[in-house]
Amino acid sequence: MCLFCKIVAGTIPATVVAKSTHSLAFRDIEPQAPTHVLVIPRRHVGNVADLAHDPQELADLFRLAGQVAEDEGLDRGYRMVANTGSLGGQVVFHAHVHVLGGRRMQWPPG
Ligand code: 5GP
Ligand code: ZN
After folding, report:
1. What contacts 74, CB < 8 A, 6 or more positions away?
2. Can you tell me whether residue 36 is helix, strand or coil?
3. Cβ neighbours of residue 107 closer than 8 Å, sequence gap 6 or more
4. What is the CA radius of gyration of the chain?
């Protein structure tokens, strides 16, 4: 079972901030901004592009990400990031979107 599947199963602890039908949101263990939450599908899928084969699950994930941003008070803006593949900086190969905020985000990203 992959790391994030273990978090879904509850065998690895995480600070869960929100849940929806198909998705789970929890705090990143190594936050890169005052708010840094990971939003993942409960079902194992390798990346967000593959998740797009199921529009319902994809929409559920982004809806929850938006909800988290609202709950965290990020009304002045935030960033959603989906690192995809090793060159894209993906380390955990279970689809996830980072919700980052609480400071000004830089562009271009590294
Ligand atoms: P990626 O680089 O794959 O886009 O992001 C993976 C993220 O998962 C990283 O930001 C990393 O800090 C986070 N992470 C890795 N292991 C754990 C863990 O055990 N618990 C939590 N909450 N986050 C983790
Ligand atoms: Zn998984």
Report:
1. 35, 99, 101, 102
2. strand
3. none
4. 13
Q: Which residues line ligand 1 (CB under 6 A)?
A: 3, 12, 14, 26-30, 38, 83, 89-92
C-alpha 76 – ligand 2 centre gap (Å): 32
| Number of domains observed in the structure of the chain | 1
pLDDT in tens, 32-45: 999 999 999 999 99
Q: Which atom of ligand 1 is found nearest the CA of 89?
A: 2
Determine the structural domain holding residue 83 and report its residue range: 3-101
Determine the distance separating the centroid of ligand 2 and the alpha carbon of 39, expressed in angstroms. Answer: 12
- In this structure, are residues 63 and 71 in contact, taking their beta carbons and an 8 Å threshold? no
Summary mean pLDDT of the chain: 98
CATH number for position 66:
3.30.428.10
Q: Whose CA is nearest to atom 17 of ligand 1?
A: 29
